[in-house]
Design goal:
Chain lengths: 298, 448
């Protein structure tokens, strides 16, 4: 029982981190039909900017919970600067081209951003571990957990609910859904598709940067943190179904629990467990768990 | 009649020519250092300038190489390294990024030899890269020093003429750790492990388990975790280690992975309940500072950094490097590239002494380096394994403590191990040597 609770908790903590990142990836795919390989780099940008901002706030005497504000501001800042810039002046130029070209463009962006990060921040690590202690420790299933990890679960749930609510219960959200279903039909009904694209992409960037910003206190922020994120995020959204928010949530939980179970019960299968789940899902549902069947266009 | 009859030369003219030749030879010999100074020795230096290994290993190695080459070119290094450059030849480094995978490295190595015309290459931190490039240098008949990578397999599975490794392989790290724990009677009735799932992590894990079976035969192994390289998130692994509640937690994690593991594990109290033992952790002490758990038993893959010996050569290197890098002291990778370049200098000068002062060929360099020994800031390097191609060196292990007054992590209770105490003898594979109970180990001799 205790082991089951530990696996559950470890799985949920990992899933929460994964969900925030994968949510942005799946949203961008749903609206723009772009599998954004640079998403991991945007996560890294969020982590670096958060590390710098938290340090800056601390130098102004704004420590403690102000660090959380700094991290949130970092994610917002990265999104507002990089989202419109990337979507409008780069990606938009390739919408008429084959989807593979867009994939290559985002891969090129990933490589460029990796070097840009080194140019700006260098290769030495940045630490902002103070916020990690903000919520103290929590005893659960006879183990000590860091309260910050539970806060991350809260953040992930808040992000999921906010995005779901915005899409399904607001007028703007309905417009975005319309674009997801049919770009051409939406445009013919007077929807400003370009604007929807930019907003959706910026929101995707925000979620990637938010994931990076709130992970920064748990790691040493340094080159190379973006690669593993993007691979495991892809696994999540493939399991859940590309473009599905519910799918990203369920996919993240499945991956989190599978990985936690493997680490505790069969450590040598840790890496294998994620891809085993992915393969199993793809065998029975090639389009993912929550992908709607696409209507045939006449 | 022969097609090319010897021209008849008068006796006087012959004497005159001989005199002129002797004079020219004399002038040549006197002027040799002068002309050597005009000549350069091009060294390809391959190290991680980007990617996850850059911060901990690649860039410190580059800084170490730049510092040493600058000093050697000025003739400012202490004896016996005070001759300018390599045998009077100015050293010209060609620095290449090791990031990008083994296939790319093979191509880059060919470029260095064939397009850049380097006289020797010193490089490679990644074990996979070392395994890939060694046969290429051999095929091209070009001189190569592997300066850092840890896998014992290079010279245990193959033999080379042109390839050398001037640093000890990973076996000594784990044997020394186990010996250190045994010498202090550290309670290790149970132990858990966390290592990266690739060559370095797997080899280290195997050596440590084997060493523990010899020195702590009653110990039980609990959690045995192999997260992927660059995982970044260790919450689940830390839970597994906390559940195992072993006396000892061993890890060969390094760089960003090790830092993340410590940052995430320390607040959960795991390192207070279990003795943390790290095989290659000197490079994280400066970045982590007071976040490093006190009392951690660490190795540095040699007698390096804060565990380096108190010798004039080491003081010169440690202080000079620290000054050049704004107070950041040198760690293992900087030491290892320095000992590689000093070994190369020794070999070049030995070969030149034997060939009349000419720039040595790869064959002459290889002959000069095979089985040689030289002093380095980290101690004496001896090419005793792999038919004289693989180094052994002395080793040091110690315990960390945050010194609030000095605002840095210090290492205390340092124990030094002679090279032949923690390295296998020639012609014996590392793992076989450990499993056989370290036959021939000489642990009574002082470390040099």
């Amino acid at each position: 029982m205790q082991l089951a609770l530990t696996i559950l908790m470890d799985g949920l903590i990992y899933a929460s981190w994964l969900f925030v990142v994968a949510l942005g990836l799946t949203l961008v795919f749903g609206v723009l039909k772009i599998l954004n390989i640079a998403h991991g780099s945007l996560y890294a940008v969020g982590a670096y900017v958060a590390a710098s901002l938290v340090t800056l706030f601390a130098s102004w005497g704004l420590g403690g919970h102000f660090a959380l504000v700094a991290m949130l501001l970092a994610a917002v800042g990265v999104a507002l600067v990089m989202g419109p810039l990337m979507e409008r002046y780069l990606l938009r130029l390739f919408y008429a081209r084959d989807e593979v070209v867009l994939l290559l463009v985002t891969y090129a962006l990933f490589l460029i951003l990796e070097d840009a990060l080194k140019l700006i921040w260098g290769v030495n690590p940045y630490y902002v571990s103070e916020p990690y202690q903000l919520f103290g420790n929590v005893a659960f299933a006879s183990l000590f957990y860091v309260g910050y990890d539970f806060a991350l679960i809260g953040l992930a749930i808040a992000c999921g609910i906010a995005v779901w609510f915005a899409l399904n219960r607001t007028r703007s959200g309905k417009v975005v859904l319309a674009v997801i279903f049919s770009r051409e039909m939406s445009a013919s009904m007077g929807v400003n598709v370009d604007k929807v694209h930019m907003v959706a992409f910026t929101l995707g960037v925000f979620l990637a940067a938010l994931g990076g910003a709130f992970t920064a206190p748990m790691i040493s922020v340094q080159p190379g943190i973006s690669v593993s994120v993007i691979i495991v995020s892809f696994a999540v959204i493939i399991i859940g179904g590309l473009g599905s928010i519910e799918g990203a949530a369920i996919g993240a939980v499945i991956v989190g629990l599978a990985r936690a179970a493997a680490v505790h019960l069969l450590p040598e299968a840790e890496l294998f467990s994620i891809y085993l789940v992915m393969a199993a899902v793809l065998i029975f549902r090639p389009e993912g768990l929550f992908q709607r069947a696409a209507a045939r266009k006449i | 009649m022969s097609p090319n009859p010897m021209p008849s030369i008068g006796l006087r003219r012959l004497a005159g020519r001989m005199l002129a030749a002797a004079a020219a030879l004399t002038v040549g010999l006197v002027a040799a250092p002068e002309s050597r100074a005009q000549e350069t020795f091009r060294v390809g230096i391959v190290t991680f300038l980007s990617g996850p290994a850059a911060e901990s290993f690649g860039v410190p190695a580059r800084h170490g190489a730049e510092f040493l080459i600058e000093q050697l070119n000025k003739g400012a290094a202490p004896a016996p390294y005070n001759q300018v450059g390599f045998g009077g030849m100015r050293i010209e480094p060609v620095i290449v990024d090791e990031n990008g995978g083994a296939t790319k490295q093979v191509q880059e190595l060919r470029n260095l030899y064939q397009r850049e015309n380097v006289d020797a290459v010193v490089g490679y931190i990644g074990s996979g890269d070392c395994l890939a490039v060694a046969p290429v240098a051999e095929e091209l008949k070009k001189f190569l020093i592997l300066f850092d990578c840890g896998t014992p397999r290079i010279f245990e599975d193959s033999s080379y003429r042109y390839v050398f490794r001037t640093a000890a392989h990973a076996t000594q790290d784990n044997v020394a750790l186990a010996r250190y724990m045994r010498a202090r009677n550290i309670n290790a009735g149970s132990f858990s492990l966390i290592n990266q799932d690739y060559a370095w992590g797997q080899d280290s894990r195997g050596d440590f388990i084997a060493a523990m079976q010899q020195l702590y035969p009653q110990a039980t192994m609990n959690a045995d975790l192999l997260p992927k390289f660059g995982a970044g998130q260790y919450g689940t692994e830390i839970s597994a280690l906390a559940r195992a509640n072993s006396n000892v937690i061993y890890s060969s994690l390094w760089g960003g992975d090790l830092q993340a593991f410590i940052l995430q594990g320390a607040p959960r109290g795991v390192f207070q309940r279990s003795q943390l033992v790290l095989s290659a952790a000197d490079h994280v002490l400066q970045p982590l500072g007071e976040r490093m758990p006190n009392g951690t038993i660490i190795g540095a893959r040699g007698a390096y950094g804060l565990m380096s010996p108190d010798t004039p050569l080491n003081r010169w290197f440690f202080d000079g490097y620290s000054q050049a890098r704004g107070g950041v002291y040198p760690v293992q990778a900087a030491y290892r590239i320095t000992q590689a370049l000093l070994g190369l200098k020794t070999a070049v000068e030995k070969a030149m002494a034997a060939n009349g002062g000419k720039k040595p060929t790869p064959e002459q360099l290889a002959d000069a380096m095979r089985g040689s020994e030289w002093q380095s800031p980290g101690g004496l390097i001896q090419m005793k394994l792999g038919n004289g191609h693989q180094a052994i060196q002395s080793m040091a292990i110690g315990r960390t403590r945050w010194d609030a007054a000095r605002r840095q992590v210090v290492i205390e209770d340092i124990q030094r191990f002679a090279a032949e105490c923690v390295n296998p003898p020639a012609n014996m594979r590392s793992l076989d040597w450990i499993k056989a109970g370290f036959p021939g180990a000489k642990c009574d001799t002082p470390a040099n």
